[in-house]
Protein: NAD(P)-binding protein
Organism: Ophiobolus disseminans
Amino acid sequence: MPSYLITGVSRGLGTCSHCKQFAFLEHISSDASNTVIGLVRNIADTNAKVAPLNRNNIHIIEGDMKDYESLKKTVESVSAITSGTLDYIIANAGLVPTWSQFDPFSVLGEDPKRLTTELNELFSINVVGNIHLFNLFVPLVLKGNGKKIITITSGLADLDLAVKYQLYENAPYSISKAAMNMAVAKFQAEYEKDGVLFLGISPGSVNVGQFDNLTQEEAQKLMVQGAKFQAYAPHFQGPITTEQSVKAVLSVAENASLEMDDGGAFISHLGNKQWL
Ligand SMILES: NC(=O)c1ccc[n+]([C@@H]2O[C@H](COP(=O)([O-])OP(=O)(O)OC[C@H]3O[C@@H](n4cnc5c(N)ncnc54)[C@H](OP(=O)(O)O)[C@@H]3O)[C@@H](O)[C@H]2O)c1
């Protein structure tokens, strides 16, 4: 029975009740032979969302990516479910901020206190949280058969993309994702010898309802960013569905291997450096 620990299954790419489409939790648990453990901050809410699936291979546990002690406690819960082993981790939880999503640094810098808080929050959740998560769970993964630790990253962390298309948007978020890409590489450097694959996969631009309630001004800024995406990828028609993204990401994860030199890489849901 392959076991999966997936973080951030309360909504979005984890469990997209908003989209009424498959997301990581639904998709992976649809195979009854998989044991799927979802880590969330609010168990009651998530249990209510997944209850209609009526699947006894889903387990929801409580943990906050910002709180080391809470993550430490989840190791015991996971061990109890899987008898001390773990095959796969999908580090999907992430802070996706709205305040800093459209404006360039110079504008964000007009509120230095808020910019500092935003940068620190992003680092704490998207980078430090995942590093602690991996350190805590690698001992279980070493005892498992899957030995794959997937981090959901973002194409926005691509330096060339940012510079070539003047993509100044989402700067603090992009920095956190780029930092985590390096953490993935460092974990790979440490655990290659043990046969564990660490991989950062960008899910593409995915509709999880994040643009549903934009103000007119924000909608205009989104169009500015959209034009840059279009210049980069002329075929780009807008965000893909969670179902399209999750299937693609899982296929890339499944096909990736140390033998094929995928360890520590930063790639997209298309399995390469094409982000859209
Ligand atoms: N959607 C896209 O277009 C896109 C593109 C590139 C990369 N990504 C990446 O894909 C992943 C999922 O994103 P999404 O679009 O599904 O975003 P989302 O709808 O904002 O969901 C984020 C998830 O992360 C969880 N989370 C945030 N902070 C947490 C914390 N401190 N402790 C535990 N869980 C926490 C949230 O839980 P709560 O409900 O408790 O807040 C939620 O389940 C993220 O890593 C994101 O960076 C998304």
